[in-house]
Structures are given as structure tokens and as C-alpha cells.
Fold this sequence. Notes:
The strands form three sheets. Strands 1-2 form a two-stranded parallel ribbon. Strands 3-4 form a two-stranded parallel ribbon. Mean pLDDT is 78; it is low at 125-130. It has helices at residues 5-16, 53-63, 77-82, 84-104, 145-157, and strands spanning 21-26, 43-48, 67-70, 112-115, 131-132, 167-168. The two termini are 21 Å apart. The protein is α/β, with parallel strands linked by helices. The protein has five helices and six strands, in the order αββαβααββαβ.
Amino acid sequence: GLTGQDGSYLAEFLLDKGYKVSGVIRRSSSLNTDRIDHMKDQLDKHYGDVMDAFSVINIIKKVRPDEIYQLAAQSHVQVSWENPWLTAQITGVGMLNILEAVKALDMEKIVRIYNASTSEMFSETTRSCSLGRACTGWILRSSFSPSRTDMFSSLARTSSFSCEVTMRRCS
């Protein structure tokens, strides 16, 4: 999310490019905003959680974004092993909530969505198959990767979303 390492770097990058940046901060008993404090006056912050479909739809409805960068994840390795169900909810169902919100708000043709993922989904690939395609094998190396893999598999099989699913393996 916005307060994580990748989210804070992305927000700073987008602000430098002249974007208006809105971000979601997960509700918790202690705010962890150290990474975004230096740009807090430039950000449009919203409190919510990708696991809460109601907050997702309300935030997207209010902001009406052109682009959505979904970076929310359970990235603490030990916690992902100890609580794989929570990990799957955040990384898998969270993305589904975003897609359903965009669909419900009839914004499918307006919004571009980027979903951060993990290289742990992919096995070793050959040079001729460096993109995440059907020829790229998936080896689930942690409890974090099955939820990402399942989300991509579900999107690739479904026709309920009028979007193109592209998977790239970035190294």
C-alpha cells in the first residue's frame, strides 16, 4: 500500500511526474506513515482496507481514478507462513475487491489497473519465454505466491471482466 516501501517510492515518482496521487492507508491502532511524511501535504489519503469491499468501492467512487496501482500485500515472510489465510485474503481477495468495484462503478473502460505480484510465482524460465505466459511454469515457493497465482489464473479463465490480463516477469 501507500505506506509500504514500494508504495511510498511509487507515490514520490508519480508526484514528480505531475500526477495527483490518492492512496489508501490501512486502518490500524498505530499509524505507520514514516515513509510518506515528507510528502503528506501532496497526497490525498484515504483510510480503508482491500479486504473490505465496501471501503474499496467507496474510495474508488470518490476518487474516480484513471489508474490504480494495487500494492497491498502481506509481505512479512514469517507472518505469511504462519497465517496463509490472511495472506491469501490480502493478496488475492483484495485484488478481486478492486476489480469488482471498478466493474460495479462501470469504470472498466476508464481505469487501468496494475497489480504488483511476486517472482515466486514463476519457475526458472528460458530466455525465449521470459514473460509470464502459459509456457512459464509456476512453482509456489512460499505461502505468499499461491494467492497471486490463483488471482491470475482466475482472471485468465473468466469472462466477467472486460480486461486483458498481462503477466510479466521482471528481474
